Structures are given as C-alpha cells and as structure tokens.
Amino acid sequence: MGRVGWFGVVVLLVGGVVVGCAEGREGVGRVVDTSVFGFAEGDYVMFGSPAENAEAWDVVVSGVVGGFAEGRTHLTAGGAPVHKVVVRVGVVERLKGDAKYGADGNVYVEVWGGTEADASRFARAVPVGTPVVVFSTDVPAVEADLGEGDGHPPGTPLLTGIHPQTLFFEGVPAATPKAAPTVLPAQDTLASFGPAWTGIHTLTDLLTAIRPALN
Fold first, then answer.
1. Cα–Cα distance measured from residue 124 to residue 214, given in angstroms and rounded to the nearest whole number
2. What residues does 169 pair with on adjacent strands?
3. In whole angstroms, what is the distance from residue 114 CA to residue 93 CA?
4. What value does the CA radius of gyration of the chain take, rounded to a whole number of Å?
5. Which residues in the chain land under pLDDT 70?
6. Other beta carbons within 10 Å of 50
7. Number of neighbours of residue 121 by Cβ within 10 angstroms
8. pLDDT (0 to 100) of residue 147
9. What pTM value is reported for the model?
C-alpha cells in the first residue's frame, strides 16, 4: 500500500468563536455538513436507543476528527466502481473494544465516498477537531476489492462507518449555521432513530446514555 494522504481543514475562527485544536469539547462550534456522507441501500437493523446501539457494536470510541483519506475501491455486482473514504478519529476515550483499536492514538473508519475518490470534500464538510462518537466493528471483506489503497496505516484495524448509527458528530448544522451546536448523525436524524434518541442534544448526553450499557 502506498502512502496515505490525509486531508483536513482546521478552522481557527468562525464568527468570532475560537475553535482551535480540539481535545474534546473545544470543537463543538464548528459547522458540520453531513450531506457529504452517502450510504448503501439495504435493510439495516436499527437500534431504538443509544444503549441498544452501544451494546450491538464491538467498538465504541469518543474522539475528534483528525482528517480524511481516500480508501478502497471495489466493484458492485453490476460492475460499477464504489469509492470509499476513511475518517481518522483521534481517540479521547475508548469505551468498548480491544486495545488494538486506537493503539496508535487513532481509529480509522471507512465510509462511502460516492462516485469519486475525493477525500477533500469530506475535509471541507467536517473540519478537523470536530467531536465524534464512533460505534463500529471491523469492515467485512470485499470480494471485488480493486486494491487501490486502504486509507489507513498498515497493521491498523479498519472499521465500518456504513451503517446509519455508526458516526455521531457534534457541531452546528450546515443547513442552519446560526443554530446552536447539536448531535448530527452522519446519516438521517436522531428523531428518525426513535423517541429514545430525541433527548440527546450533545455528545456528553450520548455518552451518559450509553455508559450504563457498557459497565
């Protein structure tokens, strides 16, 4: 595998609010555009509460976005290429999962990149330092992997971010840039996940809701 090229946009000042290098909640004032995330159509098993979601996955990590890199490319059954992008997340706390996840200080999460392998689109949409909570497991094998790059360092696990309930960011919604920061799933909305999710307004709320399920 060749060198991993990471893309990241660091926003130092937005509307007079300093949002410098984040080690946790310093990044919540960033504008986040989750419309950049695509997903595969399918019959996903959805979890009706944050606690059920935490119980269902092998890895749960809180952290901050560290950048994006072009990932794998594979072919669909019809022969069309599908590009992936990898999100690098700097680990603040590993709540669930083996020590190999985040052993180098990061976890690497694969998401759909769309028709073009352009990690810079994601870097503009979700700035470096944006707080995030990851619920995930190792990516499944892809039979028609074209092997054009993995998007993560050799020997590090690659996690899946395809399911709608794997990535939760905290920031200002791009559609309402004057609104207060809130929790933004990479796909869909909290309300679409069920009533138990609607009381989650910050990632602190989310972590509080899942901790009892992880003890």
1. 34
2. 132, 184
3. 30
4. 16
5. 1-28, 39-42, 115, 117, 142-149
6. 27
7. 17
8. 57
9. 0.86
Residue type, 134: V
Decide: residue 126, CB within 10 A, 0-12 exposed, 13-18 middle, 19+ buried.
Answer: buried
CA dist 44 and 65 (Å) reads 25
In this structure, are residues 70 and 140 in contact, taking their beta carbons and an 8 Å threshold?
no
Name, in order, each residue with C-beta under 8 angstroms of 16's C-beta and a sequence gap of 6 or more.
none
Q: Which amino acid is at 156?
A: T
Residues 56-73: tens digit of each pLDDT: 999 999 999 999 999 888
Euclidean distance between CA atoms 106 and 84, whole angstroms:
18
Q: Which of 136, 132, 165 is nearest to 59 (CA)?
A: 136
184 contacts 201 by C-beta, under 8 angstroms? no
| CA distance readout (Å), 131 to 61, 190, 194, 207, 214 | 11, 17, 23, 12, 20
Contacts of 190 (CB under 8 A, 6+ apart): 183, 197, 198, 200
- Looking at residue 76, its pLDDT comes to 75
Extended strands (E) in 76-181: 81-96, 106-114, 131-136, 158-160, 167-173
CA distance 26 to 20: 7
| Bridge-based pairing state of the strands 59-75 and 131-136 | antiparallel
Q: Two tokens at 71?
A: 């990932």
Q: Computed from CA positions of residues 132, 42, 148, 83, in that sequence, does the dihedral angle turn out positive or negative?
A: negative
